Amino acid sequence: MNKATVAIIGGGFCGTVAAIRFLTAARKGGPSLPFGSKLVLIEPQRAGEGLAYRQGPECWRLNVPAERMSAFPERPDDFLSWARGRNPLVQGSDFLPRAWYGDYLSERLEIAKQKSPRWLTFERLRTRAIGLEVDDGRARIRLLDGEVVEAERVLIANGNSPSAASLPGVDGAVDNPWDLRWTENLPTYVPRVLLVGTGLTMIDMALAINARRQDTRILAISRHGLLPQPYEGTASDGAAPADLGALLARGPLSRRLGRFREAVAASGGNWRAGIQQLRGAMPRLWAAAPRRLRRRFLRHLRAHWDVHRHRVPQKTLERIEAMKARRKLEVEAGRLVSSRRIKGGIVVSWRPRGSDEVRETLVDAVVNVTGPDANPARSACPLVQSLVEQGLCEPDGLGLGWGTDADGRLYDAHGNASQVLYYAGPLLRARHWEATAVPELREHVQRTTTVIASSLATATGSTLRRLAAPLFGRESAAF
After folding, report:
1. What are the tens digits of pLDDT across the range 441-454?
2. Cα 434 from Cα 4, distance rounded (Å)
3. 365 near 186, Cβ under 8 Å?
4. Using an 8 Å Cβ cutoff, are 43 and 15 in contact?
5. How many angstroms separate the CA atoms of 255 and 300, rounded?
6. Does pLDDT of 157 surpass 70?
7. CB burial readout 145-156, b (16+ within 10 A) else e
């Protein structure tokens, strides 16, 4: 195969970084697409934004310092250098606006396009993929505008759904909080909002609501009522616990948790270093864990893991605490029971944790901020529905994402790894658990793009690549 078409569906973080890697691989001497190939990026919005890095309130900040947010592990200072080009006063420890990161990815893609080899065609389609079929080792992608794209390899990179799973017993809840137009329907006098969930999405929504309507009173509830921990210093400060990967590899969940606590205590209580070390071991531990153990983790420990693993900037948490002090925000541990609409708003019934008492609260809006629904079986996306209906993919039994092999090949309904369809994005959590932050996702993208390029390579293509590589000269500062 001397020529090939590779299609990338989705232009958020993973799709954009994948496109950059394909466009620049030949200049770096790594596995590249065969000579004369075509790369197609299908994304209706500006590349790089996705759900996470779109334009939004200034208070929406990255929850990782600038010095750790490079999209390319081989160039760890890339994002920091870019940010200093915009503002020379940026420090590596700064938590920058999330919209900046969308700008960064978009600009890096433009540079990659300009510096890509002439024999590699790049096409950007500003539309959506609504269906996909595979026949004889080739995919046919149906687009919203009626066109069809044929490709030998497809990298599906449509990340998180903007919507959360529906709340049982609640009609009319806002399931897509990111579309802030729902705030326009709030009453003009002292709105009351119930946020269901107390994690990162809740913090974003509480800050956005407060920025638009400072008179709003917010009640946030979740099963545990836990807020994310603050990001203080680096996770490597102090002594790290023992080798947690080996320490936690065996035994029931309660015993593993006990060993973790003992290891943290023995290291002087440095739980941040413990979480950081465990983060690297989690993919192996998750893969080795039987399903019943995974279920217990999700039910009993996931909330605790999330608030310690996915932290927020100290200043962001201070703003949340200030809202609580002014009684603009109340955070409770409890469970939503039901709701009913009345003339004056919505009456929600909820039960505080550890109590048989059911409380009733009158609100003007119920907003689901439990986080994106990762279960493809419930997805309203036409492309995902098409894949599931044809058995071209297999949703994970725990509702965490897609079934894939270690290199991102999608498993079909019979458990076979596809030779045409690949996935990169947060729904890899089903296999790796750690697949939501830039440090993990950039590694997944790098591995999968390399595998795709290698699978298309031929002896002729490899020879031409080696002969052409010296023509590109030394890499620029960006690439």
Report:
1. 999 999 999 999 99
2. 32
3. yes
4. yes
5. 14
6. yes
7. eeeebebbbbbb
